[in-house]
Amino acid sequence: MPHDTTTLFSQTTFEAPTVSQDRFREAMSLLGAPVVLVTTDGPGGRQGLTVSAISSVSDTPPTVLVCLNRSNRSHQAFLKNGVVGISVLSPVHHDLARVFASRSVEPDEKFAQGNWIIGETGSALLSDALVTLDCEIDAIHSAGTHDVLFCAIKSISASADADHGLAWFSRNFHHLPVKRA
Question: Can you list the positions of beta strands (E) in the chain?
Fold first, then answer.
């Protein structure tokens, strides 16, 4: 007989073991991830930052998730604008990734670097990115210090020229070869 998971979980109390922030961060540093710039523009202003907390969710409809720290100065702009531009970086963008990761660099200074195009949502997309995803925020889920933005993809553009992607692993950038069919 199949279990009714709703009943099963509502009657069970789970206690998570206590894990320190340092131990968690060290473990997550060993979880490789793509390096991407996420941008937004609209009534909440133009903002952008470097993230590695991004993942595919579904291909029907095409959806990705992006995790944003609620204490980040750009957080409210993403929520108010309701749009996200995602630029997946290649090794030539190493320095740009560092600029967008900096808390001391103002948005205008960030966007003065790189070549940008404006997507159909109004978000800035890096013209020579490995891949760009132009998205609308479809749903938001809060977890701990972050909001998880579920982003419906409105358009995709991929570079035919890039031969490597940029990844973040063990607190360093790494180059990953692109295999083409």
Answer: 33-34, 36-40, 47-51, 54-59, 62-69, 83-88, 116-118, 124-126, 131-143, 146-158, 164-169, 172-177
Q: What is the CATH number of domain 22-176?
A: 2.30.110.10
Rg (CA), the chain: 18
- pLDDT one-digit tens code per residue, 25-79: 888 877 889 999 999 999 999 999 999 999 999 999 999 999 999 999 999 999 9
Contact by Cβ (8 Å): 167, 34: yes
Q: Where are the domains of the chain?
A: 22-176
CA–CA dist 132, 88 (Å, integer): 6
Ranges 18-32, 60-74, 124-138, 162-176: which has the least confidence: 18-32
**Cα 9 from chain centroid?**
31
Average pLDDT over residues 87-93: 96
Burial classification of residue 21, based on how many CB atoms lie within 10 Å of its CB (0-12 exposed, 13-18 middle, 19 or more buried): exposed
